[in-house]
Amino acid sequence: MKFFIDTANLDQIKEAQSLGILDGVTTNPSLMAKEGVTGQKNIIDHYLKICDIVDGDVSAEVISVDYKGIVKEGEELASLHKQIVIKVPMIEEGVKAIRYFNDKGLKTNCTLVFSSGQALLAAKAGATYVSPFIGRLDDISTDGLELIGDIRDIYDNYAYETEILAASIRHTMHIIDCAKIGADVVTSPLSAIKGLLNHPLTDLGLEKFLNDHKKGN
Ligand code: E4P
Questions:
Q1: On the chain, which terminus has fewer CB atoms closer than 10 Å, C or N?
Q2: What is the mean pLDDT of each run of 10 residues along the chain (217 residues)?
Q3: Domain of 21?
Q4: Are 97 and 87 in contact (CB under 8 A)?
């Protein structure tokens, strides 16, 4: 399973990259705004800084919601760097634009997906990735992981190549459960990724090893 980090924070991306387990980055307009990245030039510079830190795909989301605008923005984003993946919302105009990008050989990430039907459309349009938002479904008492499982079944039925990029990850167990289900990618906050490291028996065991070693010397 690929690990993407879900942030525009350069320090967190660097820390995740230093772990040696990072496969890519996803951003969205809210994450970019959270880092205070505003204005076309600053946004472009920020995407290029992210591409300099990681070797994998970097999702950059369009703001336009009309076909022509999405296509124009998406081609501009894709032209910035070979690692840039055009992130497009699951709307009618977005589906048309994903088909256009696919036919031009440009990678896409279909985002704001909350149903199997939407995921089916994303695959039919040729999206490289589909981003079902687990956490936001959980937040409204809907089982986000069940959606991941349903999409996995549907994609496997027809050997769709679109990769399931589980998004809106809230905690470490989301990562583990997505791995059990067979999501291709999780995009996660650094804290949830680092949560995979933690086990009290590891800490206790290492402490005993080191103490016994010290006693022996
Ligand atoms: C993917 O990149 C999504 O934009 C992101 O995971 C959304 O997460 P949130 O639901 O915590 O905003």
A1: C
A2: 98 98 98 96 98 98 98 98 98 98 98 98 98 98 98 98 98 98 98 97 98 94
A3: 2-216
A4: no
Amino acid 74: pLDDT: 98
Q: How far is the CA of 180 from the centre of ligand 1 (A)?
A: 21
Closest CA to 111 of 129, 99, 136: 129
168 lines ligand 1 (CB under 6 A): yes
56 and 83 in contact (C-beta within 8 Å)? yes
Tell me if 7 sits within 8 A of 27, measured CB to CB.
yes
Residues 6+ apart with CB under 8 A from 127: 88, 98, 102, 108, 109, 110, 162
Is position 68 annotated as part of the catalytic site?
A: no
| Residue 101 in tokens | 């990008």
Residue-level pLDDT at 217: 83
Residue 16 neighbours by CB under 8 Å, 6+ apart: 3, 5, 22, 190, 193
| DSSP H or E run through 24 | strand 24-26
Return the ligand 1 atom nearest residue 135 CA.
Answer: 10
Minimal-distance CA residue to ligand 1 atom 11: 168
71 touches 100 (CB < 8 A): yes
> At 161, which CATH number?
3.20.20.70
For ligand 1, the distance from its centroid to the CA atom of residue 133, given in whole angstroms, is: 7
